[in-house]
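Exercise 7b. C-alpha cells:
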C-alpha cells in the first residue's frame, strides 16, 4: 500500500472537524502543542482506516488538561505517574476512549522483561522526541504535529514503513529486555503487515525469545499469559501461515507450544499424504485459510476458532503413530489422535490462557468449542456420507450448541491439505456432506426453521408403554430421522410411525 503524507493531513483535518475539543484546546491553550502519535500515524500514512487515536499534549499541566477535558467528555486518569487520560468526547462516533497523554520517560528498573517493571515520569515540558525514544518500533515512533502540520520522525520510521521493515527504536537488546512482550508484538507486526525484520532486530529477538518463559520470584510469569495469548492469536488470525513460520523460526513455539514441534518429521502414509509430514500438512492446511477458494466457499472473515482448530487438529499424531515396522500395522496409522488431540488442545488453551479476548471478538477462543472441533475433525473419514443419519448431521453441523459451520471449514482445510497420490476422489466426502447439509437446510427453510422434534421422551414412553431408558432415545432417533428426511411432518404421523416400529420389533 502506498505511503501518503497528504492523506495523513487530510484525515487529521477531518478528525479535527469531528472532534471540536481540539479546536477549543488551541483557543484555551494557544502556546500548547498537540501531536497524534503511535499506530494511528503509521496507519494513516499507509492510508489505512483507524479508530485507535492517541494524542500527546505538551505545554499544559496534568491538572489543567484534566479540567479542560472534563468540559468536553468523560475522563478517567490512568496511574499516578502515567500522565494518561482515557477520554470519551461528547460525540457518538467516538464511543471508544481516546488516549490523551503528557510526554513521559520510561526506564526499566529490572531489565527483566516485565512490562510493569518501569519507572514512569510524565513531564508536560518534555520534548516530543524524548517521548518517542521510549517506544518499541520505529514505525510506531512518529508524531504528527496538528498545529504545524509537521511529521516528527527522529528514528526514520517512515523510511522503514516504506521498506516494510520492523526495527526497534535504538538498541534491540535494550528494547526487548525492557519488555519481553515486545518480542511478540514484533512477530505480530511482521505477520499482520507481511513485513520483514531488520537484521539486528531479528537476530536479537531470536536470542532473547526465551524471556517469554521467565518467572518472577513468586512463580508468576514475567510476561502475563493473557498478553502472550492476545499477541499469538491476533498474529495467527491476521496471517496464519506467516505467523506459523515466524513462531517456528524465532523459537517462540519451542518456548511456549513445544507440542507442535513434534509434528516435524512425523511421517504419514504416502498414498494418502503425498504432501509430506504432519508439519508440512498442517502448514498447507493453514494456507487454505488464505486461499481465494476458501474465501469464495465460506464468505466470512477468519476467526480464532477456525485458525487454531486447523493448527491443532493433528497435534497428537506424533504421540499416536503406529508403523508397519514397529507395530505391525498395514500402514502408518494414528489411532485416536483426534481424541488425544482434543485433550492436548484443552491443556494448551488453559496453559496460555487463550480465552483472554472477549466473547464478541473474532479473536475469542471457546475451550469447549475448540477441543470439540479437534475431536470431530475426522467425522467424514470413513465416507458413506449418504448413509449417515440426518440427525447426526444436524447434531454436528446445524446445532446452535456446536460450531458446526467451523467444523465444515476445518474439514475443508484438512481435506485440501491432504494430497493423495491418486487425486481422483479428492474431497468427495466434503462435497457429499455439503450437499446433505444443503438438503437439510432446504427442508428447514421451507418450514422457516429447522423443525423441532415431533415427539418428546414422555410421549414415546406413553405410546410404547415403556419406562425411561435406552429404547426411548433409539425411538426418538428413528422418528427424527424420518422427520429430517421429509417422510413425516406431524405429531400424528410420528405416532403412527412409532407404533409401526413397535409392532415390527425394530429394536
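Sequence design result:
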Amino acid at each position: 500500500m502506498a505511503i501518503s503524507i497528504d492523506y495523513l493531513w487530510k484525515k487529521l483535518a477531518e478528525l479535527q472537524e469531528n472532534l471540536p475539543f481540539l479546536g477549543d484546546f488551541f483557543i484555551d491553550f494557544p502556546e500548547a502543542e498537540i501531536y497524534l502519535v503511535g499506530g494511528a500515524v503509521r496507519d494513516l500514512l499507509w492510508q489505512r482506516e483507524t479508530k485507535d487515536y492517541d494524542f500527546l499534549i505538551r505545554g499544559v499541566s496534568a491538572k489543567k488538561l484534566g479540567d479542560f477535558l472534563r468540559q468536553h467528555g468523560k475522563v478517567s486518569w490512568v496511574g499516578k505517574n502515567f500522565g494518561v487520560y482515557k477520554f470519551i468526547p461528547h460525540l457518538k462516533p467516538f464511543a471508544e476512549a481516546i488516549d490523551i497523554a503528557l510526554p513521559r520517560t520510561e526506564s526499566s528498573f529490572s531489565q527483566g522483561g516485565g512490562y510493569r517493571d518501569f519507572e514512569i515520569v510524565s513531564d508536560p515540558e518534555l520534548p516530543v522526541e524524548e517521548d518517542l525514544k521510549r517506544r518499541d518500533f520505529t514505525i510506531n515512533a512518529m508524531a504528527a504535529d496538528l498545529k504545524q502540520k509537521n511529521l516528527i520522525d527522529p528514528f526514520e520510521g517512515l523510511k522503514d514503513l516504506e521498506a516494510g521493515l520492523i526495527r526497534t527504536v535504538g538498541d534491540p537488546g535494550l528494547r526487548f529486555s525492557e519488555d519481553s512482550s515486545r518480542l511478540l508484538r514484533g512477530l505480530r507486526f511482521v505477520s499482520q503487515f507481511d513485513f520483514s525484520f531488520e537484521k539486528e532486530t531479528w537476530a536479537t529477538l531470536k536470542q532473547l525469545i526465551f524471556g517469554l518463559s521467565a518467572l518472577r520470584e513468586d512463580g508468576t510469569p514475567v510476561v502475563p499469559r493473557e498478553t502472550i495469548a492476545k499477541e499469538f492469536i491476533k498474529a495467527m488470525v491476521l496471517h496464519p501461515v506467516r505467523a506459523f513460520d515466524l513462531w517456528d523460526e524465532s523459537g517462540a513455539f519451542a518456548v511456549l507450544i513445544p507440542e507442535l514441534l513434534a509434528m516435524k518429521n512425523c511421517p504419514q502414509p504416502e498414498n494418502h499424504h503425498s504432501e509430506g509430514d504432519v508439519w508440512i500438512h498442517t502448514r498447507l492446511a493453514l494456507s487454505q485459510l488464505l486461499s481465494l477458494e476458501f474465501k469464495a466457499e465460506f464468505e466470512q472473515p477468519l476467526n480464532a476458532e477456525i485458525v487454531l482448530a486447523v493448527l491443532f487438529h493433528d497435534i497428537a499424531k506424533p504421540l499416536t503413530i503406529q508403523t508397519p515396522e514397529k507395530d505391525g500395522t498395514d500402514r502408518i496409522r494414528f489411532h485416536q489422535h483426534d481424541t488425544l488431540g482434543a485433550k492436548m488442545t484443552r491443556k494448551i488453551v488453559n496453559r496460555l490462557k487463550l480465552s483472554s479476548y472477549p466473547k464478541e471478538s473474532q479473536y475469542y477462543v471457546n475451550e469447549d468449542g475448540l477441543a470439540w472441533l479437534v475431536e470431530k475433525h475426522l467425522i467424514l473419514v470413513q465416507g458413506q456420507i449418504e448413509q449417515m443419519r440426518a440427525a447426526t448431521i444436524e447434531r454436528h453441523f446445524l446445532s446452535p450448541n456446536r460450531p458446526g459451520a467451523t467444523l465444515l471449514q476445518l474439514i475443508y482445510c484438512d481435506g485440501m491439505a491432504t494430497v493423495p497420490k491418486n487425486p481422483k476422489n479428492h474431497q468427495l466426502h466434503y462435497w457429499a456432506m455439503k450437499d446433505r447439509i444443503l438438503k437439510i437446510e432446504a427442508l428447514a427453510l421451507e418450514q422457516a426453521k429447522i423443525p423441532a422434534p415431533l415427539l418428546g421422551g414422555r410421549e414415546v414412553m406413553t405410546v410404547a408403554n415403556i419406562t425411561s431408558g435406552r429404547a426411548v432415545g433409539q425411538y426418538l432417533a428413528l422418528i427424527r430421522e424420518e422427520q429430517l428426511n421429509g417422510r413425516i411432518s406431524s405429531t400424528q404421523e410420528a405416532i403412527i410411525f412409532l407404533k409401526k416400529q413397535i409392532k415390527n420389533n425394530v429394536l
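Instructor comment: The chain has three domains: 5-170, 227-446, 457-503. The chain is about 50% helix and 10% strand.
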